Amino acid sequence: xxxxxxRYLSVAASALLGLALVATACGITxxxxxxxxxxxxxxxxxxxxxxxxxxxxxSTSELTVWYFDKVSMQxxxxxxxxxxPGVKVNFVEQPFGDMSKKYLAALAAGQGVPxxxxxxxxxxxxxxxxxxxxxxxPYNAGRxxxxxxxxxxxxxxxxxxxxxxMPWDVATGVMFYRPAAFAAAGLPTEPTDVxxxxxxxxxxxxxxxxxxxxxxxxxxxxxxxxxxxNAGYWQNGGNVxxxxxxxxxxxxxxxxxxxxxxxDADIGAKVPAWSERWAPALQSGKVATVIMGGWMLGxxxxxxxxxxxxxxRVTTPPGGAFxxxxxxxxxxxxxxxKQLAWEFTRFLTTDTDALNAVFQKTGIVPAYKxxxxxxxxxxxxxxxxxxAGFRLMLDLAQQVKPLxxxxxxxxxxxxxxxxxxxxxxGKVSPQQGLQTAAGQLQDxxxxxxxxxxNIAPAP
Amino acid sequence: xxxxxxxxxxxxxxxLHRRRVAQSTRRALWAYLxxxxxxxxxxxxxxxPIVFSFYLxxxxxxxxxxxxxxxxxxxxxxxxxxVHTALFxxxxxxxxxxxxxxxxxxxxxxxxxxxxxxxxxxxxGIFFLPYITSxxxxxxxxGVIFAYTGVFNFVLAWLGTDPVDWLGTASGSGxxxxxxxxxxxxxxxxxxxxxxxxxxxxxIPAEIFEAARIDGANDWDVLLRITLPLxxxxxxxxxxITIIGSIQLFDAPLMLLGGVAGAGSGTLGGAEASGLTxxxxxxxxxxxxxxxxxxxxxxxxxxxxxxxxxxxNRRVFFHSMEN
Lengths: 459, 323
Hints:
The structure holds two protein chains of two kinds. Helices cover 47% and strands 9% of the residues of chain A.
């Protein structure tokens, strides 16, 4: 009998657990399909009249913000709270590598999403469908368009005319270089002369050979040839998908051919960017240039080569302007406090005092052009040997080719990088490698996301 | 005994019986209450995710949509070249890691079991150290060792040999990636296997060895005819966890080949996807590309592979034990 009782209890317990399971399953919030409507709060005025909207915003006093850079947020949040009394911003610092994964998981679960998130450009494509349309009501960010760098503002606007995030900084690509290494190789050292002498990638390769031969192989002009590809690819737009077509082949072919040429000329130090050997190589002078976004100055100055004040200069990269990195500010469709989130987003991206305060702390150059009128952008930079390097970044910012983000950017970039390494390693031809990456992307996008993409042919 | 007496006795019996039932029910309820925390947490954090991942694998589940698509994910992954590569890599690593690691661990365990060995505990501690080292630290340290300008190539250059592109970062060739991942994994886990084999060896009664020696068996006979056959149960366990661990291999390749942190900066297993394992692919597909349904389908495939291999392993071991 006791066995039978146990059995009954087991059945009852199982039924209860089953019920709990069903209840839990029912409680799972489905993936978001439609944006939640904002409560009507004088929408069309919000972009034009910050003070009034700020007063509205005070009715909701808490805001959660996710971002990966503490310094910039710790600079801007007190300014925002000061101008919005009663508002408290909870800043959650997220590790760079984990933030997009956490955001993705939160979106998939339908909960735990912040009110505002700062997305790096490598992440933003993936989250285009997650953000509020900032061109629509009640945000009307289109009113601010003329004040922003054009291509930067348009990059997150979909073909349907929706804008998923606001641009914060321009992240203009520049070339940081060591004048001492250039001088030793008989190359010019002044920024304008360097820009002129290394105007093309062919010039860059020749300079790289000179640096390597005069240093007895101890100094290379670049970490590895993949960096040459990256800069050239970004100069062509750096897009993965444009207008429903995968553009890896047309945008990547010439830069990859140039990277292969750079490999043949043996100008690299065989140190991949961001690898554990990279920072020591830059710090010790084994690598003479870094061709990346202007934000790299902060990294050089604070992390990589803090004792290198005066050892670096900045100039126009070979091949001209490009954009590398930068941040977009998104208000998730699932955010709880959208009105206040917009207040914060607008403050962050258009308040000249806040933008310039962040710039002075971090070197992050705003995409909002009225902020550029400040004399701080013409001040000499001690780390760059007194060179007024920021005005160059502002000038180059306006020459960048238009770019667009897509949902498959992350996957496309990974597939592309694998083939670029293979081509540089001589395993495949540039054309073949890019075609393979494009084919793989087309295949995976269709299989896993039901996204039908064409492959744009070689130019 | 009168009818009335019989009725009284039956009543008493029934009462006793009811009391016993009530007591046993109470006891059972208490028992269920005490074990419920584990089962509840198992259901919520163990069983539910497993069941849910099966459901997910039949959907197109992204952060923006959830749609039932039946077996489409499985049809697609059977034709997906990257999945084929990941499956091949996982099986390759399982085989190489399994064979080398188990042979090495068994050899060392037998050596440590030798009667005349001094400092046995010290050796065990040394062999066990890598097992308790953080995978992140392991990744960083081995990253420096395997780098093209790293320690291994420095030694090779000193010996007058050409450098080897262990991680495929200099040549784009993935030829050495799997051996590098296998080396790190073997180094990390063989100490744990040594410990398991050593425990198995100590569980064999000393009398058996003594009897064998009295019967004239030499060291080799003892090893082949007594030690190894009596280690089969431990061997089955060790092989099983090695198979499971190898197929689920994730941290070592990710730390060695993960590249820069952030979205779109995964490397899909380095050059030629040579270090891409099934577990890495699940992770990248779900958390880098947001394709949760497809990732769940890959994890179900991984589960199927593991079940199959475990069943085969069990058959092989128990069949030979019965024989």
